[in-house]
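Title: Comparing notes on inverse folding

I've been comparing how different people in this forum approach sequence design from structure. To keep things fair, I'm posting one structure and asking everyone to reply with a full sequence. Here's the target:
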């Protein structure tokens, strides 16, 4: 029973609003990464073979290159939980004055 209580505390230590924010931040980051990869793929596909050769890319390497770009972005885009909101220091002074 004690292990279950620890698990419940661990899962509920962050409120539902914080979990929702974290989920939405992760979903937004994934959507942005997907969109950037889609745009990069489309722009590279639009280049001529001569232009691709000029920048050192073969047409058959575009998908692998864009996938590697996405993997690098995923490694950089760690979602950090938001810290709890803190009151502005002046808010206490105004509350006392009222």
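Reply #1:
Here's my take.
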């Amino acid at each position: 029973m004690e292990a279950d209580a620890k698990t419940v505390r661990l899962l509920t230590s962050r409120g539902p609003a914080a979990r929702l924010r974290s989920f939405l931040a992760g979903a937004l980051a994934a959507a942005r990464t997907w969109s950037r990869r889609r745009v990069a793929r489309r722009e590279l596909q639009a280049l001529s073979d001569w232009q691709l050769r000029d920048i050192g890319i073969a047409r058959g390497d575009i998908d692998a290159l864009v996938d590697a770009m996405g993997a690098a972005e995923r490694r950089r885009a760690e979602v950090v939980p938001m810290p709890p909101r803190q009151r502005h220091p002046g808010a206490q002074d105004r509350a006392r004055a009222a």
